[in-house]
Amino acid sequence: RAGEKMTKPPLPQHVDNKRIIIREPANQSARNYTAMKKADVLLFLHEDKREEVKAFCASIVVPNELKQPHVFVRDTIQYHKSRKDSTKPPKNHVFNTSVCNEQQDRAYRIWDAIFKAVEKLGYTVKIESPRGQRYWNYDPPTASNVIYIQLEQDRVPVYIKEHQKRVEHVITEKELAEKKKYGYAYIPNYDFLYSGKLSFTIDEYHAKRKSWNDGKKKSIDDEIGDIVIGIMEAIHIVKENREKREIREQKRLEEEIRRWEMEKRRDKEKERIKFLIAEAEDYYQARKLYEYIAALNAALPNFEDDEQKELKQYLSWAKQKADWLNPLKAKEDEVMGKRHERIVVDLGEEEDDY
Q1: 167 - beta bridge partners?
Q2: Which of 27, 125, 181, 346 has the most CB atoms at less than 10 Å from its CB?
Q3: Coil vs helix vs strand at 12
Q4: Which residues partner with 333 through β-bridges?
Q5: What pLDDT, on the 0 to 100 scale, is given for residue 24?
Q6: Pairwise CA distance, residues 222 & 215, whole Å
Q7: Which ranges constitute the DSSP H helices of the chain?
Q8: What's the CA gap between 137 and 205, in Å, rounded?
């Protein structure tokens, strides 16, 4: 692949006439691969249930004609036949089929088989318009409706469409007349014609298999059981992915709560440190006052009697202020009130308020 020239070593010389011949039966590898794929399905079910579902899906048959059609098939047909709005079923019972008129009946029969099969397996069929969910006052046309197969809260959208083939456009007499009359006419290079071949699609990115197409030997009618299994597999994958997202979201929320708790603890710790520093500052200020008071008290004999009387009153006042400032004593002052509460060491965590 890189363009390098490689030397091909020679085979060893043949020394006798013995030969070993290995022949693989025609299409054996393809059959083995198909068997492997079929074995590797519905693993999320218990073995007994898995075999029961496989047997049921193998028995699903697209009917040759509609008899007692599913309510959505019946209402879709009725909707397109009705000329009066009063006789038309609700729009959320009507699905869109992107097929030509010749393939309509066949598409209805395929949907009828799928709807009845999935509902028997416990799934739900819903018809909604994603466009209608964007605007509360918007009434979307039935052409925008999408079919969903759903199990509880998990679902996948499914479609049936007819392939179109591109052919070169042949200019019509009408187009030539318009061009001659007006000097210009829009003439496309190609026409897109319905091919008569249908395709069933599961619109889920992670699905194991997303589409089934009409082929030369098989049609999607012949693979209706595999289609139902494919839908079940796709919904299970949607469920697994949702559960993984929920686990990731739960972990993210838990991490967010831990981060929020740590921030709350950090803020509380900052307040405690701030209060601690303020108390320590008051304590050191009080100690300076005590030292100063002691120095003044020692110097009392050096003052006159009248001065000593006033100084003693001053020292008593100073002692009260120092005791008021000292957090270890936390005395209440008749003028200043109380600066410090009694010191209580409380390092316990407060209960969360969420």
Answers
A1: 191
A2: 125
A3: coil
A4: 337
A5: 57
A6: 11
A7: 28-39, 47-58, 71-81, 101-120, 173-182, 224-298, 305-325
A8: 31
Q: Alpha-carbon distance 321 to 26, whole Å?
A: 108
φ/ψ region of 279 (left if φ > 0, alpha if ψ in -120 to 50, else beta) reads alpha
Report the alpha-carbon distance of residue 172 to residue 174 in Å, rounded: 5
**335: pLDDT strictly greater than 80:** yes
User: What is the phi/psi pair of residue 155, to 5°?
Assistant: -155, 165
Q: Mean pLDDT, to the nearest integer, of 87-107?
A: 90
Are 196 and 185 in contact by the 8 Å Cβ rule? The answer is no
φ/ψ of residue 111, rounded to 5: -60, -40
State whether residue 128 is helix, strand or coil: strand
Amino acid in position 30: A
pLDDT in tens, 295-329: 999 998 888 888 888 899 999 999 999 999 999 98
Contact 156, 124 (CB under 8 A): no
The amino acid sitting at 315 is: L
Q: Tell me which DSSP letter residue 333 carries.
A: E
Cβ 220 vs Cβ 178: under 8 Å: no
| CA–CA gap between residue 148 and residue 154 (Å, rounded) | 10
